[in-house]
Design a protein that fits this description.
By secondary structure, the protein is of the alpha+beta class. The chain folds into 6 domains: 70 residues, Phenylalanyl-tRNA Synthetase, Chain B, domain 1 (2-Layer Sandwich); 116 residues, OB fold (Dihydrolipoamide Acetyltransferase, E2P) (Beta Barrel); 193 residues, Phenylalanyl-tRNA Synthetase, Chain B, domain 3, CATH 3.50.40.10; 67 residues, Phenylalanyl-tRNA Synthetase, Chain B, domain 1, CATH 3.30.56; 207 residues, 2-Layer Sandwich (BirA Bifunctional Protein, domain 2); 89 residues, 2-Layer Sandwich (Alpha-Beta Plaits), CATH 3.30.70.380. Helix content is 25%, strand content 29%. The protein has 20 helices and 44 strands. It is extended. The two termini are 68 Å apart.
Length: 815
């Protein structure tokens, strides 16, 4: 649906709003703007074309048909222009296309004006004929103007070239109330809180009543309301320019003044009208009825159609079909140049009948689009009167009858109650009651009763989409603005369906693919193991003992996945495989003794990773590299990133049962309560020896159940900055117990906007600094998302970071 801005402004004041602002308002109101285009009565709007006056005109010395002219266009110096028109002469006011202007001729391709030489003479523009600028087809000579406009005046102003902004709105099927300029203005009125106006029809009055068409509605179910009047002395002719331009702006082809008026009223107020040649209505009577199946009827497109017995037909007194009601006119009853008397119809047709007939005949017109979705039964008479007044004004017609209005059973407003707490729940916020009432009243939804718990509304029939409390919530929201609903500080869910639980199998598959892609192999170890491990580590009190075990080596359930992996590494070593990179998803089992003496059994799933030996394969290009703690940490980091786990706190493992050194990542529940989620590090050699291993093994234990429960499917992205990043390095000396993580945290707390990355590229401990100190060389990447960083900003940022390190880490900055 196309909406003209100029047309829209006839009903609501919008001169202070840009098309882009209106686009935002309309889209928020549910009338999504799919495109904004500029319509011009002349393509290009005559931009770069001005009024000029020919000062001199002389014959070209080297060409018989060319003339050398000088033209005043209001500039400091006149232009030299070579012109080939036979009628050019000194003293004429003409249209001049200046250098750089683009011409859009009536026929042919666009032409850009350039400065050049024609037969050796300089030409600084072009004096135009009407076909060269798209104003007509004549090429007999240049346009000579009769105007007092100053030289240099824009040609578009002198020639009254019009332009308009046209919005293409993707109208949803439920919003037929907005299928017109007035309907769109009605929504903007509610949002912008402005007055709405439409042309007065107070002057409507028949000049005489000597010609009347009788109306008989035989099928009132299909036509609940049908109205009409007659006009005489009508002169059918082309429409005036303003009417043509209004229709052309929205893509409607002008036909003649009478038909154009009916189309204008349809797009203005959403009410389809139809004009019949009254002299072709036998018996001066209109009968609204259905006809027998397979009755033939020739429509305006000259196609002969066979009717269904449910097609609503507008017939004459002899029951000869004149029009397929609400869809398409008949070939023999339409308005032509010889028409002088008109019967003008305005009606409300049952949407079910119109939908069925339109589909049956494959005829989808502007009228059927509106009638099939539900026109406004209370908006039948105003458009009829307005169209009659326009025919009087434009086509010299005279209203020659009173309006006949068949409306036996009035359709009442929809009335229902809405609870305040229901609105709050649907909207997501509690809005002031008076604000809700004001919004509804601005949408012509009347609030007729109010209590402490609810209120009652009366909804006019044209709002076919507002039938229940949820629709009232939607109306309030779209006018108030979804963007104005603040997020609650205590989020809650009130949905009928619960959020889908994470798919544990899918997440496991994704992590497995990640690890396999990194060169690891998946292993599956026995859940039964030997109690020798727990006894050696003095944790056998937690063993879940097998009552009837078959082997001393399989007498308990495993308390940890570690030892099954160590056994697998040993098994591979025995078969000549020294380099191991493996992972396992599996469960562990523990027994905990409660204070009251009862045993509590725990079963939980873990993800374990083992690295031992070399990383990668030795080749002629590079030597083999031992797998180390950082390789393990990188794998753990990739898993956390894949699952979008953020905000885990890091701390160093000290005096651990399994690890010689390492880290654990987790969540702090209280001051002294830390829940580890990931534990990783180098396994103690004495623990490895329990499995007869004498190699370094790096091991990671991840709480898989916690990771599944806390993974976040929603990821946030931001546009890559168009501005360059800057690197700055800093060397500082700190106490040995200060980790890089501590320094990174200080940096990120200190500079949140510009600091994109902190890295360490060197660590030094040795003779040149104190024994209890170490030196870090840090790398900082700075970047602004909105502009290029200048040296002053960079220096200020680095000074702020150095002060923070000195204050919080007692650092010595090495300059």
């Amino acid at each position: 649906m196309n909406i003209s801005l100029k047309w829209l402004q006839k009903y609501i004041a919008l001169s202070d709003k840009t098309p882009q602002e209106l686009e935002a308002y309309l889209t928020e109101l549910g009338l999504e703007v799919e495109a904004i285009e500029t319509y011009e009565t002349v393509k290009g709007g005559l931009e770069g074309l001005v009024v000029g006056q020919v000062l001199t005109c002389e014959k070209h010395p080297d060409a018989d048909k060319l003339k050398l002219t000088t033209v005043d266009i209001g500039a400091e110096n006149p232009l030299s222009i070579v012109c080939g028109a036979p009628n050019v002469a000194a003293g004429q006011k003409v249209i001049v296309a200046t250098v750089g202007a683009t011409l859009y001729p009536t026929e042919g391709e666009p032409l850009k004006i350039k400065k050049g030489k024609i037969r050796g003479a300089v030409s600084e523009g072009m004096i135009c004929a009407e076909d060269e600028i798209g104003l007509g087809h004549s090429h007999e000579g240049i346009m000579v103007l009769q105007t007092d406009a100053p030289n240099g005046s824009p040609a578009a102003t002198v020639l009254e070239v019009e332009s308009d902004t046209v919005f293409t709105i993707g109208l949803t099927p439920n919003r037929i109330d907005a299928a017109s300029h007035y309907g769109v203005a009605r929504d903007l009125k509610a949002r912008l809180k402005r007055e709405l106006c439409r042309p007065s029809v107070e002057s409507f009055k028949p000049k005489n009543t000597d010609f009347k068409i009788e109306i008989e509605v035989k099928n009132s179910e299909a036509a609940p309301r049908y109205a009409g009047l007659t006009l005489t002395e009508v002169k059918v002719a082309p429409s005036p320019d303003w009417l043509k331009q209004a229709l052309q702006a929205i893509g409607v082809r002008p036909i003649n003044n009478v038909v154009d008026i009916t189309n204008y009223v349809l797009h203005a107020f959403g009410q389809p009208l139809h004009a019949f040649d009254a002299d072709k209505i036998a018996g001066n009577k209109i009968i609204v009825t259905t006809l027998p199946k397979d009755t033939t009827f020739k429509t305006l497109d000259e196609v002969e159609r066979k009717l269904s017995d449910t097609d609503l037909m507008i017939c004459d007194g002899n029951q000869k079909p004149l029009c397929l009601g609400g869809i398409f006119g008949g070939f023999d009853s339409g308005v032509t140049e010889s028409t002088t008397r008109i019967f003008l119809e305005s009606a409300y047709f049952n949407p079910t009948y119109i939908r069925r007939s339109a589909k049956h005949h494959d005829l989808f017109t502007d009228a059927s689009f509106r009638f099939s979705r539900g026109a406004d039964i209370n908006n039948v008479l105003y458009p009829l009167k307005y169209a009659a007044l326009l025919i009087e004004e434009i086509a010299s017609g005279k209203i020659s009858s009173e309006i006949t209005d068949f409306y036996p059973q009035k359709i009442e407003n929809a009335v229902f109650s809405v609870r305040y707490d229901y609105l709050d729940k649907i909207i997501g916020n509690s809005l002031e009651k008076e604000l809700i009432f004001d919004i509804l009243e601005s949408l012509e939804i009347e609030v007729i009763e109010k209590t402490d718990t609810d209120f009652k509304v009366s909804v006019p029939p044209y709002r076919v989409d507002v039938l229940q409390p949820a629709d009232i919530a939607e109306e309030v929201l779209r006018v108030y603005g979804l963007n104005n609903i603040a997020f609650s500080q205590t989020p809650r869910t009130d949905f009928v369906a619960a959020f889908a639980k994470p798919d544990a199998h899918l997440l496991r598959q994704q992590v497995s693919q990640l690890l396999v892609g990194a060169g690891l192999s998946e292993m599956m170890n026995n859940s039964l193991t030997s109690s020798k491990y727990s006894k050696a580590l003095q944790i056998d009190s937690k063993d879940v003992v097998i009552l009837n075990y078959l082997s001393e080596d399989l007498d308990v359930m495993r308390q940890d996945l570690l030892f099954g992996g160590l056994e697998s590494i040993k098994r591979n070593q025995n078969r000549g495989v020294q380099d191991i990179a493996a992972f396992e998803f599996g469960k562990f089992y523990q027994k905990h003794t409660a204070p009251e003496g009862k045993n509590k059994y725990v079963e939980a799933e873990r993800l374990a990773i083992w690295l031992s030996g070399n990383k990668g394969v030795e080749s002629w290009r590079e030597k083999a590299k031992k797998a180390d703690f950082y390789d393990l940490g990188e794998l753990a980091s990739k898993i956390l990133n894949l699952l979008n786990i953020k905000g885990l706190e890091q701390r160093t493992l000290t005096d651990d049962l399994y690890f010689q050194y390492g880290l654990e990542l987790g969540k702090r529940k209280g001051k002294d309560d830390f829940e580890p989620i990931v534990r990783l590090g180098l396994v103690k050699r004495k623990v490895c020896k329990l499995a007869d291993l004498n190699v370094d093994v790096f091991y990671a234990d991840l709480n898989w159940e916690w990771l599944i429960k806390n993974h976040n499917e929603k990821k946030t992205y931001q546009e890559i900055s168009r501005f360059p990043s800057v690197r700055r390095d800093l060397s500082l000396v700190v106490a040995k117990n200060i980790s890089f993580q501590t320094l990174e945290n200080i940096a990120k707390r200190t500079e949140r906007k510009l600091l994109q990355e902190v890295g360490v590229f060197d660590v030094y401990e040795g003779e040149r600094i104190d024994a209890d100190k170490k030196a870090y060389a840090l790398r900082f990447i700075l970047q602004d998302q909105d502009k290029t960083l200048d040296e002053q900003t960079i220096e200020k940022t680095m000074n702020k970071l150095m002060l923070a390190f000195e204050k919080e880490a007692d650092a010595l900055i090495r300059k």
